[in-house]
């Protein structure tokens, strides 16, 4: 068995790729992996380590064919706020606007309900959704890339993550390892002060355009509560900016207003949202969808993106897309 380096040592990008290759290939013990992940989290991962670990995961994934303009929007999870599934709803809204969404996600590891759990509670057969991912992406513009289907090396890691029960570097690696090879993304992370570090990791990996966002209260998506740190990454560089809900005229709301629950609770809330229910959940989805549509290039600015998101909800287009997806993935 390989012995991982001390977690107090900062690794180069190449060293991190090698070490996480050992982890993913089962060349270290589970106890060693758990220790290393916890200690690395406690001292904070560097941009080089995140990029190297993501390269190791990318090298072992099972890819899918996707349209050239496919996009993903997701959060890293692990923020402890247990909110409703915002990025899942955003995916439907964005796809309803004609932008292909290759939604990469998983079951909950450190939250009450992950994207896969909520979609399953809505009636999406996750096994069938995996089998038909390329078909649904090509024909109706959305798919769910269940992490376990595309990252077989993660099979032994998921139980370790669940035992740890809190955020680790694997939360950060996942969004950087989309099996569709998307070139544009909105990624929410749980630590606002960490946005430039994560943006540096993304820039090292390269992208056409990605926004890294984090609410001031540690929300892994754009927050209505107050300000947000945003890194706009293009190519191998990024710029930092501050954004709040005022940019598109939305009211501020506390995080508690979008507090979620288990998969059944979150699925009911998402269905209600798609059926036209107003309130903070809708506003949070519009805010994040606006940013995603800007990143995709489909919206000229945030205000235009918000208008597109509202129309997808108000016209029932996002709701019809979900029904179509459930019907196709059988």
UniProtKB/TrEMBL annotation:
Q: Where is the Glycosyl transferase family 3 N-terminal domain?
A: 9-60
Reaction equations catalysed: N-(5-phospho-beta-D-ribosyl)anthranilate + diphosphate = 5-phospho-alpha-D-ribose 1-diphosphate + anthranilate
Annotated Glycosyl transferase family domain residues = 69-318
Q: Which GO terms describe its molecular function?
A: anthranilate phosphoribosyltransferase activity; magnesium ion binding
Residues the entry annotates as binding 5-phospho-alpha-D-ribose 1-diphosphate? 75, 78-79, 83, 85-88, 103-111, 115
Q: What class of enzyme is it?
A: transferase
- In terms of superkingdom, the source organism counts as Bacteria
Q: Which cofactor does it need?
A: Mg(2+)
Report the pathway entry.
Amino-acid biosynthesis; L-tryptophan biosynthesis; L-tryptophan from chorismate: step 2/5
Q: Which Pfam families match?
A: Glycos_trans_3N (PF02885), Glycos_transf_3 (PF00591)
Q: How is the cofactor bound?
A: Binds 2 magnesium ions per monomer.
Which residues are recorded as binding anthranilate 1? 75, 106
Q: Where does Mg(2+) 1 bind?
A: 87, 221
Q: Which Gene3D superfamilies does the record match to this protein?
A: Nucleoside phosphorylase/phosphoribosyltransferase catalytic domain, Transferase, Pyrimidine Nucleoside Phosphorylase, Chain C
- GO BP, sorted A to Z: L-tryptophan biosynthetic process
Q: What are the UniProt keywords, alphabetically?
A: Amino-acid biosynthesis, Aromatic amino acid biosynthesis, Glycosyltransferase, Magnesium, Metal-binding, Transferase, Tryptophan biosynthesis
Keyword check for Cell membrane: no
> What's this chain's function?
Catalyzes the transfer of the phosphoribosyl group of 5-phosphorylribose-1-pyrophosphate (PRPP) to anthranilate to yield N-(5'-phosphoribosyl)-anthranilate (PRA).
PANTHER family xrefs: ANTHRANILATE PHOSPHORIBOSYLTRANSFERASE
How this chain assembles, per its entry, is: Homodimer.
Protein name as catalogued = Anthranilate phosphoribosyltransferase
- What organism does this protein naturally occur in? Altererythrobacter xiamenensis
